[in-house]
Write a structure and sequence with these properties.
It is a single chain. This protein is an alpha+beta fold. Helices cover about 55% and strands about 10% of the residues. The chain has helices at about 5-15, 20-25, 45-55, 65-75, 85-100, 100-125, 130-145, 155-170, 185-205, 215-220, 225-255, 260-265, 270-280, 310-315, 355-370, and strands at about 35, 40-45, 60, 130, 285-290, 295, 300, 305-310, 375-380, 390-395. The strands form three sheets. It has a five-stranded mixed sheet with strand order 1-2-8-5-3. Strands 4-10-9 form a three-stranded antiparallel sheet. It has a two-stranded antiparallel sheet with strand order 6-7. Helix 8 (about 155-170) crosses helix 11 (about 225-255). The protein is globular, with a radius of gyration of 20 Å.
Length: about 400
C-alpha cells in the first residue's frame, strides 16, 4: 500500500514535470549506472555519485550537457556553479567567509524570527494559514536580507514576490533536461537576470555599513559589482526556490505520515526529522556533470563528452539501503555517505545548505511547539519549475 505522504509527493512530480517523473520511476531499480540514449548516464548509487562529485579532474560543472553550461548562457561565465579551478576556489572562499554559522544564525534571528512569531500567533488564534504563501514571503524576506534590500517598507511583500518570481523563472530553464537554451530562451533568461541584478545594484551602491547583506560584505572585501552580482545572484536563485518549495513539502510529509505528532512528543529529534524529510522529498532531484576525460568510477566506465545525471531522487530511495523507502520514518538511521548528500559534495557543495537547515529548524521548531497538532486542508501544486512544490498548502490547528 502506498503511504499517504508518497501519494502527494508523486502528485507533485506528475503535475510539475510528468516526463521527468516517469524517467525517475522507470530507472529507479535498473542498477547503479543507467545509460539512457540521448539523455546521458544516470547514476543511482551514492558511492558512485560522491566519487564523481569529488573528482574534478574527470568531471566538471561547465562542460556540454551540464547545469553550468545552461547557467553560463543565462547568467554569464562567472556564476560560481559553472566554474572550476582556482577562480572558483577563490570566490568560494570569499563566500564561505560570509556564510559562517554565526552569520547564518544572525540572519535567521534578525529577519526570520519576527515572521515566525507572526505565524505562530495566527495559528494559536485558530486561523487557517496558507503555508506556501507564508513561505514565499519568508523566503523573499531572507532573499532581501542577503541582497541588502530593506524589508521594512510598505512595498516589501511585492518585492518578495518579484524576487521569488525571477528566481523560479530563471531556474526553470534548467528543469526539463535540455542541453542548451535556444536563442529566445537566452534572451528571456538574461532579461530576468538583469531584473535581479537591479536589486543587487541597489544594495551595492548604498553606503557601506555593518549590515547583514552578502552584497555589502563582498563589496567590503574589495570585489567589484560585476563579480558581486554574479555571486549573489546564483546563491539567491538556488537558495530561494529550494527553501520556499522545500519547507512546505517537509511539513506536508511530516503531517501526512503521522510523524508530526511523534515529533511534537520528541522535539529533540528535529534534526533526524529534517534528514528524513530531505530524503523523502529530495527537493534537489539531480545534479548534472560533464565528463572531461575517460575514466572508471567504482567499476563503471565514463567516456569524455558523456553527460552524467546524479539522480538524488533515486539514490535516496534505494530499497537495498532503506527499508520501506517510500515511507517517512522518524528516527530512521541515515548512512553517513547519504546524510544530506542532496546538498552535493566536494567543491560545489551547496553554499546555502547551512541557511536552509537553520530555516527548517526555526520554522519546524516553532510548529511542533504549538499547543496542538496541525492538519492540512486544500493544497495545489506548481508546474514546470525546477523544484516540484506547493503553490497552496492550507494548514490549521487541530
Amino acid at each position: 500500500m502506498t503511504p499517504p505522504e508518497q501519494i502527494f509527493e508523486q502528485r507533485l512530480y506528475r503535475h510539475n514535470r510528468p516526463i521527468i517523473h516517469w524517467l525517475f520511476q522507470a530507472t529507479r531499480t535498473l542498477g547503479p549506472v543507467v545509460s539512457i540514449p540521448r539523455v546521458g548516464r544516470l547514476v543511482n548509487d551514492a558511492m558512485v555519485a560522491r566519487a564523481i562529485l569529488l573528482d574534478t579532474d574527470h568531471f566538471n560543472s561547465h562542460g556540454p550537457g551540464s547545469f553550468g553550461a545552461l547557467i553560463t548562457q543565462a547568467l554569464g561565465p562567472n556564476a560560481l556553479i559553472n566554474m572550476d579551478g582556482p577562480a572558483h576556489q577563490a570566490y568560494k572562499r570569499a563566500l564561505l567567509q560570509v556564510f559562517s554559522h554565526r552569520y547564518v544564525a544572525e540572519v535567521v534571528a534578525a529577519f526570520g524570527q519576527p515572521m515566525v512569531e507572526g505565524l505562530r500567533a495566527r495559528l494559536i488564534a485558530g486561523e487557517t494559514v496558507d503555508f506556501a504563501a507564508f513561505m514565499r514571503d519568508y523566503g523573499g524576506a531572507m532573499a532581501c536580507a542577503l541582497i541588502g534590500v530593506p524589508i521594512d517598507r510598505a512595498d516589501a511583500p511585492a518585492e518578495h514576490d518579484d524576487i521569488f518570481r525571477l528566481a523560479t523563472e530563471i531556474m526553470a530553464f534548467a528543469g526539463d533536461g535540455k542541453k542548451r537554451l535556444t536563442a529566445a530562451q537566452v534572451t528571456r533568461a538574461r532579461g530576468l537576470a538583469d531584473q535581479l541584478y537591479a536589486y543587487v545594484r541597489r544594495s551595492f551602491d548604498g553606503a557601506l555599513g555593518d549590515d547583514l547583506s552578502v552584497t555589502q560584505r563582498l563589496r567590503a572585501e574589495g570585489l567589484d559589482f560585476d563579480t558581486v552580482k554574479d555571486l549573489v545572484t546564483v546563491v539567491l536563485v538556488g537558495a530561494t526556490e529550494l527553501v520556499i518549495y522545500g519547507l512546505p513539502r517537509a511539513l506536508a510529509v511530516l503531517i501526512d505520515s503521522g510523524a508530526f505528532d511523534q515529533l511534537r512528543a520528541a522535539p529533540d529529534m528535529i534534526d533526524s526529522a529534517i534528514d528524513e524529510a530531505l530524503r523523502v522529498t529530495t527537493p534537489s532531484n539531480v545534479i548534472l556533470r560533464s565528463v572531461a576525460a575517460d575514466c572508471v568510477v567504482e567499476g563503471h566506465r565514463f567516456r569524455q563528452g558523456d553527460r552524467v545525471l546524479i539522480a538524488f531522487r533515486n539514490i535516496m530511495r534505494r530499497a537495498d539501503r532503506f527499508t520501506d523507502p517510500d515511507r517517512f520514518v522518524l528516527g530512521r538511521e541515515m548512512p553517513p555517505e547519504l546524510r544530506r548528500l542532496p546538498f552535493g559534495a566536494g567543491p560545489h557543495t551547496c553554499l546555502g545548505a547551512a541557511l536552509t537547515l537553520a530555516e527548517m529548524r526555526q520554522l519546524l521548531g516553532m510548529l511542533i511547539a504549538l499547543p496542538g497538532g496541525l492538519k492540512i486542508g486544500d493544497r495545489a501544486f506548481n508546474r514546470g519549475k525546477l523544484y516540484p512544490g506547493y503553490t497552496r498548502l492550507m494548514i490549521s490547528p487541530c
